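re: ur question from yesterday

yeah so i grabbed the chain u mentioned. its 343 aa long if i counted rite. heres the sequnce exactly as i have it in my notes:
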Amino acid sequence: MPEFNFNPTSDIATSALTRKPVSGGRFNVHTTSDQAAADLASGITDKTVIITGVSPTGIGADAARAIFQQNPKLLILASRSLENINAVINEIRGSKSVENVKPLLLDLSDLTSVRKAADELLRMTAVVDALINNAGVMMVPNFKTTSEGIEWHFAINHVGHFLFTNLIMPALLKSQDGACVVSVSSAAHRGSIVHFEDINFNEGKNYEKFLAYAQSKSANLLFSVGLTQKLGKKNLRSFGVDPGGIPTTGISRDISMEERIERGWWDKNGNPNTELIPYKSVEQGSANYIVAAFDRTIDDQSGACITDSAIDPTTAPHALDPESAKKLWALSEKLVGQEFSYN
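ran it thru and got these C-alpha cells back, copy pasting raw so excuse formatting
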C-alpha cells in the first residue's frame, strides 16, 4: 500500500486558489450555513431531509439547525445515540413544540441496525428529497472490524451508508423535484485509493489509521460517482463534500493532542495551527452540505466534490474514476449481501 502522503498545506490551502465558485459565485469559503440555507430556502421549505450522524457541536447538527429554520416538511435526524439526537432536536427547536423533526436510531457499524432503520424510515415517510450521509469515524488507533468482518472506517463511513441509501431509494426516487444524496468525504481522500482486494489491511497486519480513514473517504466520493452513473437518468443527484478542517467537532477525538502537535495541525500551545491549515467554523463547513443538497444550478456537476462551497477541481482522480466507482459498487453489494440494480 502507498504511504500516507496527505499534505494539508498543499492539498487544502493551495488548491483553494483554483476552485470554481458555484451558483455564479454567490457562495464561497466564507459562506455560512445560515446564508446558504436562506439563499436556497425555496428548495428546502416543505421538503423531507435526512441527516445521519448528528451529535451536539457536530457539522451535521449545525446543518440540521440551518435547514430547520427554512421550514422543511420533515427533518429526520439519525444517530446510534438517541441521547445525541434528542439533544440536537432540543437545541434547534428551542422553546417551540414541533412535529416536523423526528429521531431515527441508526448504527452504521451493524447492518442489521441499518436495515431496521431503513424500514422505519420508509414507514415514517414515502418521499425523501435530500439525504446527507454525515456520520463517520476518523483515525481509529487500533484495527477492528464489525461483526460482519469489515474494517471499522470502511464499514461506518461507506458500507453502512451504501446499504442505507439503497434501501431507502424508493423514497428518494419519489421526490417530485429530484432528490440529492450527499456523501461527506475529506481532503484526506488524496491519501489512498480504495484497495479493492484488501480493504482490511491483511486482516489488520498492515493496518495504518491514516490509510484506513483515507481509503474510506475515497469510497465516499466514488459512491457519489456510482449513484450518478446508475441513477442520474432517474433525476437523482449526488455530490461528495469536503467540509474542511474544523477543530471544534468530535470526529478527531481519537487523535491525541501530542499527535496533533507533532503533525503540525496544532501549535505547541495546544491551539489549531491556522498558519498551516485554513481551519473553518462549523457554520462554514456545514454550508457545503446545504449547497450540495439544494443548489440546483449545479445539477450537471453531479458526481463531483464540493468544498469551500465550490466544485473542487483538485479532487484526486482516483476518487472520481468511473471504473473504480463500478468496482466499489460491486464490492459493496458483496459486503452487504444484496444487489441493487436500477434499470
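noticed a couple things. The longest strand covers residues 74-79. also The chain has eleven helices and nine strands.
anyway ttyl
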